[in-house]
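Researcher: Checking consistency across runs. Here is Histidine N-alpha-methyltransferase again:
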Amino acid sequence: MTQPALSHDASPDLLRATFAAEVRAGLTHTPQKELPSKYLYDEVGSALFEVITVLPEYGVTRAEERLLAKHAADIVAHLPHDVTVAELGSGSGRKTRRILEALCKKRPTSYFPIEISRSALQLCRRELGDIERISIVGYERDYLAGLAEVSQDRAADERLLVLFLGSTIGNFGRLAATRFLRDIRNMLAPGDALLLGTDLIKPIPVLVAAYDDSVGVTASFNLNLLARVNRELDGDFPLDAFEHVARFNPDARSIEMHLRAKRDVTAHVGAAQLTVSLKAGETIWTESSHKYRADEVPAIADDAGFVCSHQWIEDGWGFAESLLVAR
């Protein structure tokens, strides 16, 4: 029987204070103003992202779903018998279903989605709650804070499988990705594992179109970040003064998303005690998505304290899942 879903929700006051502090730090950063990409995913942003995943230009999610549909049983076959599952950035949980169903066919499974977005956690519980023999406990936390709690709370006789699916590792450059994976490794025991999704490098026009779709959903997704600042932090950014920009950075092999001021703008963010001015043409950097080659993953894993034991590749769009085992 499916177990009731519980959650560890963060304090709203703490979340707001943290959001305000990070907005202040980002908008005063020089020479490039920036906002953390994790704040794209409030209730509105999460809903818009679900729309993005089915757009014809954005092939990442469909490629991963095809890969997991084909290889979930094989992936699970390479895991220890008893595993607890933690997922960093579960989103709706749709992409995770195949793995969890394959695990739950073999044994009851505890699943801990870790999300900064409460609405995404609620959607995840609705999406996956019908899986037989699953127990779901959500953590409304940053990735590493949530993983630290799960690592401490898990049963001593179970291995931990961390899922980091989608292309979220692409939000980090090579060095930052290695540091982040090392932080994960430091919370794991030898023999624990990480299943890592990676969007692979592909022609630049394909990448740009994936992050700047023809109907403007990604533009709305990006602009919602400023709307969220206005809603939650007493901001007054004029949304009509900004436009979405997606561009490829060849040196970093990444797509960058920016919000570009169409005219001179001065805005206030009350909760951050901040006044910020932008000249026409100046941008706020909101997200990067670095693209990797599949053969780079084992070296990054090794630098972070893992061994890449198996890798599965979807060749249509170009996507990889890599099973990394903690040394």
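Researcher: Does this match what you'd expect to see?
Model: One thing to look at in this run: The two ends are 35 Å apart (CA to CA).
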